[in-house]
Amino acid sequence: MADKMLPMREALRMALREEMLRDERVFVMGEEVGAWQGTHRVTRGLMDEFGARRVRDTPISEMVIAGAAVGAAMAGLRPVAEMMTINFAFLAVDAIVNHAAKIHYMFNGQFRVPLVIRAASGWGDQATATHSHAPEPIFAHFPGLYVGCPATPRDAKGMLKAAIRDDNPVLFTESIALYGKPGPVPEDEDFVLPIGRSDVKREGRHVTIVTYARGVEWSLAAADQLAKEGIECEVIDLRWLRPLDMTLVYESFKKTNRCVVVEESLPRFSFGSEIAALIQDEMFDYMDAPVKRVSAMDVPLPYAREIELMALPNAQKVVDAVKEVL
Amino acid sequence: MAAISRETLLEWYRQMVLIRQFETQCDILYKEKKITGVYLHLYSGHEATGVGAVATLRPTDHVITAYRDHGIALARGMHPNVAMAEMMGKRTGCSGGKGGSMHLAQRDLNFWGGYAIVAGHLPLAAGIALESRYNGKDDVVLCFIGDGATNNGYFHEALNLSGVWDLPVVWLIENNGYGMGTPVEVASAQPELVKRAIGYGMKEGPRVDGQDVIAVYEAVSEAVDYARQHGPVLLESLTYRYKGHGVSDRSYDKMAELRDWQQRDPILILQRKLVEMFPDVEPELAQIERDVAKVVHDSVIFAEDSPVPTYEDLIRHVYVED
């Protein structure tokens, strides 16, 4: 079956629709997912097709959206609960961290929580401080939860389908900035990308760039620019922060001996900190330079466009970091 | 309501005596440092509420509660051995020694567990009820709620969702007068907690005498029937905790109040009723007490003789592995 050019939101919808057709237990719940057609239009048309039983509009109640999804999953359904944005998921952290992630363990395997919580993540256009977070690493801190963060429409489809089919709870974040960006998407209904598998998005021999989600776009743009100067970057998209698959990173690092980590989120106690620590633990004998990190600045994001952009990572910052480790 | 049989009343008596003796034994074991850890919240004093409410359910119905969960687990039919083994952190415990006192659960009894984040289990109850509705079943969820949990945001969100989705949940507040150390009147602007039902458009059940197992049974039966056919109900059982908030409760200095409540001890009330109804019943009651003492004793032996969890247990079940 051929690939189709689709924006990420439509690739996600394709995944949801296929899984709902495939498994009666799969249903969607969240704020504005039904009659409104989804705040980010990911669930557009699903209520018309599947009805209000399987596409459930909820009150603006994040604690119970996450918590009721946990209960429904324990009881045998396969909820896909949408947090309109990850910022609102902060209200639901208890249900996600204390219940979704721990129930299987705490009761010694008696219950399963086959749950997906989808959340739009990242900075938008001047969304301001409370609506500008990419806090995936916070959630990846907790054992019991999987955290998936796709960077392309193809990955979005394959990873979401894997998340829905898995028996573990998954926090699945979707970069708001990527929703509208098109890419080839397999139309095959059995196209599933296994959980916890990273991906080489560009091959190179001089520097390893480790990133995920939105960072892939900046990293590839930086790699294009650097290639013109004869610097070949290998861009590795981790795709999942949990389970964390470092095999491709280590393979690449043995070749390049240099690494830059690129993340959309904040720099302290971050994704970058974790990757840097793992590399120095496992790859010390191969290191030719310190691991550099490109992150957002350590400030809340402001409204004014000029200073908002200053605070955020971009391709140029990645270029500069690569040159520092060479 | 049809008269409750002698056999049923004796079974309730047995369960209440079992809970009381089990909890008394736990208290002793804690002081002997055989049950360890910082948390142990005893159900003594609440027996009529747990037993009367759970007795209304079918096996396919569901039960979920907070951290004061031993009595609910036993009322639902958990074997005292696996409950006691969990208290002692043994591998044979209902949760493999990984949950402890606050996290008893037994899937095959549709006992979905005790939960230690106050009000954190209320959304789970809504979700379990959603599965019943989603699949066209008529099973209900009985969700026990401490009075303290009614001031938590989860309470509001879960009750409201159950209202808008007509979920078959019986929300049963066990009002023992205190949320940890704070009296209900200090914590709740509307201390008649059951009145919250109005705010969620749901049926308001009665405030029932939580010391009288028959009264609890009758009120909860009506609520369960309603939930099965229509949707959620909120009701309240007035009771008292004999052993404070938990074993760590050092401020529990309410002896006069305790003595008043013990005048209305739930086991004593049922005992008097049984003797009044069946003058020849006393030897049977004595026999029940002796049998239960043996069961509780055996549970301690079982737990003490059980192995502790292993390294393999420590790392198992973080994720579903098959």
Kindly describe this structure.
In chain A, helix 1 runs parallel beside helix 8 and helix 9 (214-227) crosses helix 13 (315-325). Chain A has 326 residues and is α/β, with parallel strands linked by helices. Chain A folds into two domains: 3-186, Thiamin diphosphate (ThDP)-binding fold, Pyr/PP domains (Rossmann fold, 3-Layer(aba) Sandwich), CATH 3.40.50; 199-325, 3-Layer(aba) Sandwich (Rossmann fold). Chain A is built from 13 helices and 14 strands. With 322 residues, chain B is α/β, with parallel strands linked by helices. Chain B has one domain: Rossmann fold, CATH 3.40.50.970. In chain B, the strands form two sheets. Chain B has a six-stranded parallel sheet with strand order 2-1-3-4-8-7, sandwiched between helices. Chain B has a two-stranded antiparallel sheet with strand order 5-6. In chain B, helix 4 (80-87) packs across helix 11 (282-305). Chain B starts with 5 loop residues before the first helix and ends in a 7-residue tail after the last helix.
Q: By helix and strand content of chain B, what is the structural category?
A: alpha/beta
Helix residue percentage of chain B: 40-55%
Within CATH, the superfamily of chain B carries the name: Thiamin diphosphate (ThDP)-binding fold, Pyr/PP domains
Q: Spell out the CATH superfamily of the largest domain in chain A.
A: Thiamin diphosphate (ThDP)-binding fold, Pyr/PP domains
| Tally of individual helices of chain A | 13
Oligomer: heterodimer
Show unreliable segments of chain A: none
Through-space gap between termini of chain B: 48 Å
Taken together, the total number of domains of chain A comes to: 2
How large is the count of helical segments of chain B? 12
Q: Would you state the CATH class of chain B?
A: Alpha Beta
Would you tell me which CATH topology of the largest domain in chain A applies? Rossmann fold
Q: Write the CATH fold name of chain B.
A: Rossmann fold
Helix content of chain A: 25-40%
How would you describe the shape of chain A? Answer: globular
